Here is the input.
Amino acid sequence: MVNITLYIAIDELCANAGINQEVILEVVEYGIATPQSGETLSEWIFDLESAHWIKKAIQLNQQLLLDWVAISLVIDLMKEKEKLKQENNQLKSRLSRFSRLL
Amino acid sequence: MKFKDYYKILQVGDTADLKQIKKAYRKLALKYHPDTSPEPDGDENFKEVAEAYEVLKDTKKRAEYDELRRYGGCSTDGFDAPPGWQSTTSNNQYQGNEHGDFSEFFNSFFADRGQNYEGSQRHSPDLFKGQDLEMELPVFLEETLSGTTKALDYHVPVITNNQRQQIKKSLKVKIPAGVTDGERIRLKGQGALGRQGKLNGDLYLVIRLVPHPLFDLQGSNLILSLPLTPWEAALGIKLEIPTLDGKVKLNIPANSRSGQKLRIKGKGLKSKTGQGDLLALIKIDIPPLTNTETKRLWSELAEADKYNPRADWS
Here is the structure.
C-alpha cells in the first residue's frame, strides 16, 4: 500500500520544478497560488491544487516566454474554464436526465 | 536515426537571427501549446518546436547543428554523426529524462545539463531526478463516503541509450473519504525513475468522479430526480428513496409541485467543509391514457376542479 500526500512543502516543490523560492514568491504575489500554511517563505506549504497551478505557471513562463502578468491572466482564465467545464458537464448530465423524464 | 531540420520546423531561413528565431518560436509555441491549442496533434508539434528552439537559440548548439546539417541534413536513409564528431555542448553519456520528450536526434547531440530557460530563474535543477507523472483516477460516488483502496497499473517512461521505453508499474493506493472531482493526490516517489541514486518523480492522481445512474452533483449535494404521479404530488405520499448508502423514508407533502426540492440532510457527499445533503427534485410524471376508465376519471377531475395554471396570462 502506497502512502498518499495532499500537501507539498516549498523546498520539495522547488526541487521538483527546478526553480528557486523567489519564483514561488512571485507566483504567490501575482495571486496565481496561495500557500495553505506557513509563516515565512521557507515554511510555506501548498495544497496540490496550488502546486499544480504553480507548475503550470512556470511551464507557461518557460515554454511560451510569457511574463508573470500575462501568466496570471492566463491562469485565471484556465481556472475559470475548468470550473465552467465541470459545471457544464454536471448541467448536461442533469438535462439529459430531465429530458428523459419529459 | 532521423535527421531533424530545425530551421524548417521553426519556419525560418538558416540565416535567421536570434530575434527572428524567437519570434517564430513564440508564434508556433502559442499555436501548438497543449494549454492553448485546439489542434489534435498540438502536443507533438509543440515538442518539435520546443526542441528546435532549444538548439537554435543557443549560439554554440546552433553552430554545431549547422555543422551536422551541412554534413548529412539531406540524408533520408537515417542519420549518423560525422566520423570523429564530438559535441562541445552535450554530455555524450546522456541517458536522462530532462529531455525525455525530445527526439533521439536531440538526445544524441544536444542534451546537456545546463538548460537555461529565459526568465525562469532556474537554480541548479536536479536533472537526475525522475519526472512527475499525472493520471486520472475514476472513483465512484459511493467510494467517496468512506474511502476506498484502488489498484493502479500504469507505465513509467525510461530512457536508456537514447531510446524511450515504458516499464509497467502496479501498486495499491488508499483513496481517502471526501475526495472531490478534479482533486489531486500525490504519491511520492511513484513517478519516473531517478538516476544515479537520485529521487524518483512523483505520481499525481487526478480524481474523476464517475457519473452515477441516479444522482447528479451540485457541489457536495446530490440531486435525485423524483418522479411522482399527479395524485401522489397532490395528495402526498410516504416513499422509500435511494441514497448512496441505502434507502431512507421520505414524506412527500400534499400539494407538492414540479421543480420543488426536498432536502434529506447529511445524505450527500463528504467534503472538507462538512457533509452535503441529498436533494430530491420533484418531477410530475403524467401517465399515458391507456383505457377509457382513466380518461373518464381525468375528465371528471377536470369538471370538478376549475384550477387554471395560466390565470396570470390574462
Residues 6-109 of chain B form a domain with the Helix Hairpins fold (CATH 1.10.287.110). The radius of gyration of chain B is 32 Å. Chain B is about 25% helix and 25% strand. Residues 305 and 311 of chain B are 14 Å apart (CA to CA).
